[in-house]
Amino acid sequence: MATVSTHMPHLSQPVTTVLVLWSFGMVMTKSCGLTTVAGFLSDLLKQPENTVRQRLREWYYAAEEKRGEQRRELDVRESFVPLLRWVLSYWPSDEKRLALAMDATTLAQVFTVLAISVVYRGCAIPIAWIILARHRERGVEARLARLVRGPARQHGRRLDGDCSG
Predict the structure, then answer these.
(1) CA-CA distance, 11 to 15, in Å (whole number)?
(2) What is the pLDDT of residue 134?
(3) What DSSP state is assigned to residue 48?
(4) Binned average pLDDT, 10 residues per bin, the chain of 165 residues
(5) What is this structure's pTM?
(6) Distances in Å between the alpha carbon of 127 and those of 22, 29, 130?
(7) Is 67 helix (H, G, I), strand (E, B) or coil?
(8) Whether the Cβ atoms of residue 120 and residue 95 lie closer than 8 Å to each other
């Protein structure tokens, strides 16, 4: 948990804890399904499965849908720059090239996920994304451009060519 807190200092301790649980559960089960991850974690943590499931579920709920007081919504856009910095912290200092992958994945003709990923050692690591409500939504190109410019501008490097500055 200390590693995540170090690289994502803008996240509260409860948000970081559930992020770590989600991530660990997905890696260990090789699944991103709520039921699978909750079942695995409930056995590991010796907690009721419904309790763990609700904790994982509320992590991605809007603030008004969460139980309890002082609940806030997680704005993933606040994590784009810290994610990019985290990935780049493993980058060789003499490497001036940065490969980006842009992807648009349509899910059941209902959602389209636009993602920008850094390609690192053969893996695409998502650093910025947006979910569009309909797969035929207009302005996709402009949204992709904003997705790339935001982290690049805040990180202080160009991501559209030479990364030397």
Answers:
(1) 6
(2) 66
(3) -
(4) 92 92 96 95 97 90 73 81 89 87 84 86 86 67 66 50 40
(5) 0.73
(6) 17, 23, 11
(7) coil
(8) no
Q: Helices 13-29 and 49-59, interaxial angle, to 10°?
A: 110
Please state the φ and ψ torsions of residue 94, each to the nearest 5 degrees: -90, 0
- Asked if residue 129 lies in contact with residue 144, where contact means CB atoms within 8 angstroms, the answer is no
Both structure tokens of 7:
């690289």
pLDDT at 143: 67
Which pair of structure tokens corresponds to residue 52?
Answer: 């763990």
Question: What's the token pair of residue 24?
Answer: 């660990």
The letter for the amino acid at 119 is: V
Sequence-separated (6 or more) residues with CB below 8 Å from residue 8: 16, 19, 79, 82, 83, 86
At position 54, the amino acid (one-letter code) is Q
Residue 101 in contact with residue 124, Cβ under 8 Å?
A: yes
Per-residue tokens: 29: 């089960």
